[in-house]
Queue: 3 jobs
Job 1
Amino acid sequence: MAPSAVSAAQLGLAEELADAAGAVIRPYFRQKIAVDDKADASPVTIADREAEQAMRALIEARFPADGIFGEEFGSVRADSEWVWVLDPIDGTKSFISGIPLFGTLIALLHRGRPVLGIIDQPISHERWRGVAGRQSTHNGEPIRARPCPDLAAASLFATAPDMFRGADADAFARLKSRVKLTRHGGDCYAYGLVASGFIDCVVEASLKPYDYCAMVAIIEGAGGVFTDWQGQPLGLGSDGRVLAAGDRRVHAAALTLLAG
Amino acid sequence: MAPSAVSAAQLGLAEELADAAGAVIRPYFRQKIAVDDKADASPVTIADREAEQAMRALIEARFPADGIFGEEFGSVRADSEWVWVLDPIDGTKSFISGIPLFGTLIALLHRGRPVLGIIDQPISHERWRGVAGRQSTHNGEPIRARPCPDLAAASLFATAPDMFRGADADAFARLKSRVKLTRHGGDCYAYGLVASGFIDCVVEASLKPYDYCAMVAIIEGAGGVFTDWQGQPLGLGSDGRVLAAGDRRVHAAALTLLAG
């Protein structure tokens, strides 16, 4: 089998899903819409729900045998060979605050392995795309992660300090104490910028599969490394702790520090 | 004297300064440019320096008697009746990471009181403008801060948790424990979104006058409140602790919590 089993039809659908989600989301941005609290106290809006519904309808119409796992409407046909993993708005807190760093995340998994990923920012009209075995792109242009020889020269991003609890907070503090610069608030956008070569490292915890599966092919196809905190490949069964780095030397050093 | 002593010529120059800074900054965004460390370990680039030089040259040509206080090149004629306070790139860490939330900040002070302010984001082409006694605008459209009855319903932004040290960190933690949602990473953009009615509160510390003077007229002209942590008006002599809120009930409650 070729490095990527992704077909042109699947790739076309992935782009259509991103287009459809963006078309739903854009008219709601910076409008006074209701914000509901989910069971985990995270916010959700009509834009999240309608964008996921639009994507699910397209998948059902085009590839009705494929599985779907979405943030807002759960899982169907989870044991299918192909499963689409969807986050209509990653970064809903940014979205409701008027900050255009949120994104629609679309991943396609083949037998549990993420082989296609899209990060789409519908306000700035930026789209990162990764396909296993191919070079990643940003708005269609090939991208490469940048070299960074060691942690002392690295920039580190994590969406929020509160995502690290207990021993995870200690691990993050160890890493933060060794890098050049730490920033918060990036959401999925920070992963795109690792692939584009402007950020060196993203470390997060307490994530769900729809928060990270889309980034796997994007980061790897730009020459970066994206694993869990044990250095293992990411998939539906990962524990929600992730480490992305543009340079494998930074990834290796960060892994060691996170392990304690 | 009218509420605002700002002349059409001064307002025109302020807009020209923002245009000039943006023209300098845009070509450097997401380019591989050198990042130098300043004495305080904060980063600076050729884009910061050239943007401030462009603005200073325009002021010197048009209003040679006015004072200028800029982040990168210091102060001249500080005792003038009118003083321009400039931050060519507020959020240089965002700028060098490829994140379009940084901004050019331009303030005009009349006898020490900020009477004109601009926040300009040159990548998303967004400009907030405030003039004492007039309604603030975002890209020319009038804006209003939103009502928020109490802290429990409020969103709180601060660029970085590390900006709070010692007792300031305790004060921020008290406030954070009482709001609905806390986010980091906003830079000047978060203040613009308070004026536009999408964020309720920004609390920061360790700031310099060029980090906050531009926001005074913008927040006040949108119906919000922007003071130091004692509730006093902001100016060149403030201590770098600031509190912006869209609703004065949130401002009052936050002041009390910050005081301990």
Job 2
Amino acid sequence: LKPDATRFTAHVDTLLESGCHGVVVFGTTGEATSFAVDERKALLDALLASGIAPERLIVGTGCCALSDTVALTSHAVLSGCRTVLMLPPFYYKGPSDEGLFRSYAGVIERVGASALRIFLYHFPQLSGVPITRGLLERLSAAYPTVIAGIKDSSGNWDGTAALIATFPQLCVFPGSEVYLLQALKEGGVGCITATANVNAGAIRSLYDAWCRDSGRLEALQGQIDDVRQAVEQHSLIPALKHIVSLLRADSSWRRVRPPLVPLQAEPAERLAGALTRAGFRFPKSS
Amino acid sequence: LKPDATRFTAHVDTLLESGCHGVVVFGTTGEATSFAVDERKALLDALLASGIAPERLIVGTGCCALSDTVALTSHAVLSGCRTVLMLPPFYYKGPSDEGLFRSYAGVIERVGASALRIFLYHFPQLSGVPITRGLLERLSAAYPTVIAGIKDSSGNWDGTAALIATFPQLCVFPGSEVYLLQALKEGGVGCITATANVNAGAIRSLYDAWCRDSGRLEALQGQIDDVRQAVEQHSLIPALKHIVSLLRADSSWRRVRPPLVPLQAEPAERLAGALTRAGFRFPKSS
């Protein structure tokens, strides 16, 4: 269950080549919270040592402990990765906006880097700690050059649309590609999504078609949605790792750290079948 | 916002002298998750260096990352603290019992210390990850000498009573002293409670009265309940820190790490008034 820097680096490389403008390392899908601060630092070091451009990375750095978040954020910025995705501290539920403001402000002040750009991470289903509009307003006013945007993984499109409308100065990313076209139409800037790990090309095609105003947008969105729907029949992270294992013909990719568990044989087979019907082609397994 | 080993040590000392049989260091009230692994190790080292007996400590060691939980648990055991209180990994919600079993088993196997005794930490309101009876059964069967008990902070007495009845081989602690007498009557072994930070003497008196079968049990429980009720009008952890600051005439004690915030002036005054009416006497503030 140790981090595997070689496979990690190869995977990020593939994602950047297959259509992703950038990659979030250490988000929810990357099992960030399942790894220690030192493990995460070492993985980022390995990634950069392999030659991947720091400008194409967004580094997940939000931990429960202020000191951990400061350590990871400082390390990212000093490594040339100025953009981070930051969970709020997520053990204490129902914190006040004042407490969350102090948390983010405390990190910003302690890191003390003018280059720092933060995307806040709104994922109430897992963190249990929503980023409220009031908090966002206050942070954006206090640190206008640092607070760069928000990843909205709530899955609530109306909330995402309200964020886009309320905060034109911020980059708003829905946390799923099923909202990509809607978000682009409203003024969102793209999406940050787990499924890009296995479907980056198709998602990028929709983005490019939007930029070229080339029509077919709804059809492209529909194809992307079909893939997402097939994956969402299963526990998302083990399912994605299973698909990567099939795409790379490398069963090592199925490993997850507890409390996650790999997909079992029967659902794995159903998933592969659904994706094959959606046009995926898998190499013969090794 | 750095850890204050001097005040920490003095406080643990006071608790052990004022009636606590033992002290959990790095539980929810101790803001464990707000501190980094190295900060927590250094605080435990300072505590033991001051001469506090390791047998009287229970060390909170459960983190989101398996590697962090292993590091903290190994450090505790190697320091002579064989008993730990272990949260499940708490970022991913709705994990399977299989995943949680692998998590605890993974820690036990990696720590590899026959002396280790684990109390599981059931606090679904904050962790979002309940310890189910099925998980407890499986862990207790697989590691009968390691799995020693459970702290049930759910606040659901029926659930606590069911744990006591179902697992006679385990030490069951309710997470609040309001259930102490009921728990002792049913076969529980005591309580592990935040409010012991400010009311250890009264809680111990009830425990001792129970052991001596000396009557007055309901009256003692009633007095304890009054204090708890006064504290529960407020945000629990900041309120307790405020009370400690009053008892020690030391305003430094009011500090909390974000996302918690200290009690404001008006509720702080109400709290002090209610406790004075309940019989608390505070020294003149410094």
Job 3
Amino acid sequence: MRLPLDQTHDPERRSWVESANDPAGDFPIQNLPFGVFRLEEHEQPRIGVAIGDRILDVRRCAERKVLPGVLSQAIQALAAPTLNDFMALGRPQWSAARLAIGNLLDVRFVNDCKPHVTLIPMKDAQMLLPATIGDYTDFYASIHHATNVGSMFRPDQPLMPNYKHLPVGYHGRASSIVVSGTPVIRPMGQINPDDAVPIFGPTRLLDYELEVGLLVGPGNGLGQRIPVAQAAEHVFGLVLVNDWSARDVQKWEYQPLGPFNAKNFATTTSPWVVTLEALAPFWVPSMARSVDDPPLLDYLKPPEPLGLDLTLEVSLSSEGMRKQGMAPMTVSRGSFADMFWTLDQLLAHHTSTGCNLRPGDLLASGTVSGPTEDSRGCLLERTWRGTRPFALTDGTERRFLQDGDEVTLTGWASLGGRPRIGLGRCTGIIQPAR
Amino acid sequence: MRLPLDQTHDPERRSWVESANDPAGDFPIQNLPFGVFRLEEHEQPRIGVAIGDRILDVRRCAERKVLPGVLSQAIQALAAPTLNDFMALGRPQWSAARLAIGNLLDVRFVNDCKPHVTLIPMKDAQMLLPATIGDYTDFYASIHHATNVGSMFRPDQPLMPNYKHLPVGYHGRASSIVVSGTPVIRPMGQINPDDAVPIFGPTRLLDYELEVGLLVGPGNGLGQRIPVAQAAEHVFGLVLVNDWSARDVQKWEYQPLGPFNAKNFATTTSPWVVTLEALAPFWVPSMARSVDDPPLLDYLKPPEPLGLDLTLEVSLSSEGMRKQGMAPMTVSRGSFADMFWTLDQLLAHHTSTGCNLRPGDLLASGTVSGPTEDSRGCLLERTWRGTRPFALTDGTERRFLQDGDEVTLTGWASLGGRPRIGLGRCTGIIQPAR
């Protein structure tokens, strides 16, 4: 998935948008993630690009014809209310847009282009889902997560015999995908707390799952496969995903056909899609597979085994903490480079039967957990099924999520002194069951 | 789900479209199923209603204002290229359209309305998917199917402890749903035939699954539940569904998160959506639950336990049979009244967590199998995992599907001497792996 570096990755490059040059910020001129926003509730949504604490109004750039080198087809797609049409165009047109937008925002181009450019403060904009997501697939690509969870649900056989041979995945619910900031209502559900008589009531074991999601660019026709070596051409970019889970519902319902109601009440994504191009400098050799692991079948062998060096963090604040002005507490921190299955393998496996992907489809990694306790990406693992609670800074204890809890996922790459490429924030507050 | 009977159900009613009065036909004037068709490849699709061997061009009826009593909102929805907008309107508007269309086609109205009505021979039309299907859910509602399959995959525990407490389901793939008549390419996949070293190759155990699908009418908001007693208000109508399955892929991949690639290469639906109104006379007391079964939780208790008396049939023809002019062979015949979980329970359970359904969403029943060998709705059961092959009329043997095989599902209700209400045909021919 590693793309070549070019002038858009130059670490010395700076923007005339001052906030973009903050080394602690997510959105320097080397990032330029795409999103969809609006300013008023009933307004037509438009495409924007994040730069510092501002949003570049891309639709207006398209209308004012200040994107040299971008073909008319792409100009039209950038004026649409979702990113789907633009995603369908493929990398040559994405690259041309990235180059033109970067030039607009470059400190060296200030005099020429500033008057044509509309910047909107992020705080004034309402972010929406970046694309219409036709289908959502969730994988299980962290071997640490699979081993931890497996050992709780199936102590005799934590890791299934298939695990190292294929990236296990399942189809998720697309209708209930919401954008960061949308409150999450504690779901009701059928649970069987004492393994005796099931009851219907609010979930008692509400959890988050820290995941990375891939948004599909050009799709494949029904009956066609995407070769693992060409997978990158089908990836527009990445977002953060919180695959909220009701563990008690899951435990009771999941056999034999997998998770269903335990997951379909809400899935949150971050609003900014960080392109694969922006992430080009951050690929590292993957150490996930060892020589003792079974050999990969050809259709899953990437040209080079690479992981993405992306730091991922979960933070949590209770309602009490927020009332007292306390900062959110970091609950875990891991790396996406630790994944056993890589993004190109997920795409190749998903389409190996000829299953068709469409622009804007979401493929999520599954919970990203590392080898250490503080890198476990969900509470089920972090508190070991609630047996090892931890204390928040307001003195309360957490085994699973409480009403009023706010969960925030963040992620960023910052290898070798390059400007930090951030994925932004993926957040949600738990509301009481209804 | 039983709706009241009215004049549109009058068994004596006849149409001036002569073929609609054929007692062996699927589409009498008491049926009036909705579909989407076009005559030329690049034409805008339009909504039609099946009557005998003709299609009523509903868009033209809407344009010519020959649908008295139908509100302008519904007229507009009926001129759209899919049924989604019409599905969203709800039963009062569906009923008004059914009444008006029935009157147009009634033998007593011939002189007034015939000149305003365009009928197209079915053989000249290309049928399309009736709706844009946002999400597809597949259930496991036949206890005979669950018990049979369970005993093969898990002989120690065929039926999971949850089975009689909740309708088990999983999310399917929406992108690969195709309309009847679309060829199905034998999928490649990762399989492990000897339980030793997995390989990648064409599935050897390709199967069909005979199912009934429900298309959602008005949806529910995220966080809202559909009460079991109100489920019927959210159901537009029913179709036949063939959930094609690669059993060897399924066996190797399905643990712990359920079927994925084994199912996502193709799912076929019939083109005509038979409304719940047309099916009103065919509800019968459900005998599926016995007094020994565990009591239902309130959210799953229907006001009256009713099953739909729908006969369902699978027929098969090989390429050789078709070349020799032989008729397809009936492989199984069952009844939808045998289902353990009913359609209203599927809707109530699916939304019990607040999962939002959208107009046009597809909820399929899972394989419909009855208690007898000849009522088993997939080859896995019919040939007991291939151990009990059967002979086709061309002398070849079937354990699983061969290239060139054509599978056709049909379904109809015909209780009490009423005109037969047919679901039409759901068919597909297997093409060799690519």
